[in-house]
Structures are given as C-alpha cells and as structure tokens.
Amino acid sequence: MMISCEKAANICDKSQYEEASSWEKIKLKFHLFMCKTCAKHSKDNTKLTSLCNQARLAVLSEEEKKKMKETFSKAK
Fold this sequence. Notes:
Layout: H1 5-16, H2 22-34, H3 36-55, H4 62-75
C-alpha cells in the first residue's frame, strides 16, 4: 500500500485540482502520515493553491496571445 514520494506528489497535485480518486486520496493520506517531507510538500502545495485562487490570476486567451506575438513581430 505504501507509495513512492514521486507518486505521492503526483496524487497531491491531482488532489489540489479535485482529479484524484478516493483510493488515491487514501493512499496519499497514509503516505503523508509516514513521510513528513511529503506532508510538508502537501501543506505548501495547499497554501500555494489558496494564494493563487485569492489572487484571481487570469491567463491570456489564444487570440490575445496571437495579437501580442504579432505586435512584437512588427516591433522588431
């Protein structure tokens, strides 16, 4: 049942985006109980996600990216 730290990090990331299955979450909880390094990573990852959500970060649309590239190409 013990998973590797690499697998735990992957499940941690999936869990942050609500993509982890119930079984993966159980395996992660068990791993975090045994591995303090991964527990810290999970805690830090949760904080980072929370901060990003609070910041209301936005990304450019594909059209905006295209316009920006064209503008930079013309400036050269």
